[in-house]
Amino acid sequence: MNFEPLKGVRVLDLTSVVVGPVCTWRLGQYGAEIVKIESPEGDLMRGLGGLSPTGQHSGAYLHFNRGKRNICLDLKKEGAGQVIERLIASADVIVANMRPQALERLGLDAATVRAKHPDKVYCLITGYGTDGPYAGRPTYDSVVQAATGMAGLMLARDGEPAYVPMLICDHVAGEIAAGAILAAIVERRASGSGCSIEVPMFETMATFVLQEHLAQHSFDPPVGPPGDLRLLSPHNKPVKTADGWISFTINTNPQVRAFLKATDRQQLLDDPRFTNVAARARHVAEWFEVRGAPLTSRTTAEWLDVLRAADIAVQPCHTLETLPHDPHLEAVGLIGFEQHPTEGRTAAIRSSIRFEGAYPPRRSPAQPRGANTCELLREIGYEDDAIEALLSAGAAQAASST
């Protein structure tokens, strides 16, 4: 069966780069029709996301924009504003991640849109919200990682700050926004009323950090230093083997005993520092020095067999080269291949969520800029001569003319 709870919902996608496209991609996984509005300059991620055969669709752009129809509009040109207004009228949900000031200048902010269309769900994804001292400032994922203390966690652990080498804040905030939109759609179906949603990346990711690492400072007065000292241990890293690295976690008392036996450390079985959860919490530095020590007496494959036999959660530490070939991912078919209209044979990553025993079908490949301009204009009431006038004036562009 096709599980498409959002079938019939049209989402107008006024987003670019990562955080917004991730949000709308997720809504598309649930069956929503996504209409992506792109400027003649194009989404920055078309080139910023890496090299591609034609220079039009980076790998990242392909994956974040799957299943979306594309209309290319130049909002500086006469006539484009009327097109946007018709598209808004035809949509159920509007998602934007432009700066609030830019949206206000264009008349595309939540207040303006919902004054005309109170039944619309409008979601603004921002760096810092609209009501604090940072409101309206530009930001990117790495800046948010620093501002929220994520990079500072690396400073506490490793002695210098560092970024997580993926756009983790964009992904998380995008998924949070998709969840908020789903909640608003449920309410809209019950009441008929729309909703204005605001998802600030800074507060969202700061909340994640503080929920874990406020820790002992959650109490007044504090009962210890801030931070989960297990996660901040310099030994909290993959462990070296004879030919690579493995990653494992041991939390319960039976797991700890099994680990000590499997790694020939029976002399520590009755060590009072490690016999129970409370003792290991009091002696967290010493415990993580034990569990983080190199295991170079055996290969990765050998350690995987030993630790799995002891029912310990363990996996190899993959690289970007090895991850696509993980036997589990290959068996469940996470990555497939398809023929893209301009890029040739390309990887296609399916949804990781299964409904009623089946994964949602892979939606159409990411489209060239303006691929659906003419058909979308027809759908919102433009006749062929009016479409030709918009194309000639540069207010709209179609793929064949870009």
TrEMBL record:
The record's section on Gene3D superfamilies has: Crotonobetainyl-coa:carnitine coa-transferase, domain 1 (3.40.50.10540), formyl-coa transferase, domain 3 (3.30.1540.10)
Signal peptide positions are none
Keyword annotations from UniProtKB, A to Z: Transferase
Q: Which GO terms describe its molecular function?
A: CoA-transferase activity
Name of the protein in question: Putative CoA-transferase, family 3
Taxonomic source organism? Variovorax paradoxus B4
